[in-house]
Amino acid sequence: MSSPPEPQALPSAPSLSFAEDLYYAWLADPRSVDGSWRTYFEGLPAAPGAAPAPASFPRRRPDGAAGPQPSAGAGGDAAFQAKVDRLVQAYREYGHLRANLDPLGLVRPAEPFALDAFGLGPADLDRPCADADGRGDRTLRDLVARLEETYCRTLGVELAHMHDQDLRGWLEQRMERTRNRLSLAPDVKKLLLRKIVEAESLEQFLGTKFLGAKRFSVEGAEGFVALLEFLVDRAVGHGVRNVVIGMAHRGRLNVLANVVGKPLRQIFAEFRDNAIVNATGGDVKYHLGHSTDRETPDGVLVHLSLAFNPSHLEWIDTVVQGRVRAKQDRYHDFERVRSLPVLVHGDAAFAGQGIVAEALNMSQLEAYGVGGTIHVIVNNQVGFTTSPRDARSTTYCTGPARMLQIPIIHVNGEDLEAVAQAVLLAADFRQRFHRDVVIDLWAYRRHGHNEGDEPSFTQPVMYRAISKRPTLRQLYAEALEREGSVTRAEVDAMAAEYRARLDAAYQASAQIAVQPGAQEAGGFWAGIKGGAITGPEPETAVAEAVLAQAAAGLTQVPQGFHVHPKLAKVLEARAEMGRGARPLDWATAEALAFATLALEGRRVRLVGQDSRRGTFSHRHAVLYDHQTGTPYSPLAHLREGQGAVEIRDSLLSEAAALGYEYGYSLEMPDALTLWEAQFGDFVNAAQVIIDQFLSSGEAKWNRLSGLALLLPHGMEGQGPEHSSARLERFLELSVDDNWYVVNVTTPAQYFHALRRQVYSPWRKPLVVMSPKSLLRHPKAVSPLGELAEARFRPVIADPVADPSEITRVVLCSGKLYFDLAAAREAQGARHVALIRLEQLYPLHADDILDAIAAFQPGAEMVWAQEEPSNMGAWDYVDLHLSPRLPSRLDLVSRPPSASPASGSATRHKLEQQQLVAEALGDPVPRIHRTDTRAAAHEH
Ligand SMILES: Cc1ncc(C[n+]2csc(CCOP(=O)(O)OP(=O)(O)O)c2C)c(N)n1
Ligand SMILES: [Mg+2]
Question: The Transketolase-like pyrimidine-binding domain covers which part of the protein (predicted)?
Answer without folding.
Answer: 584-777
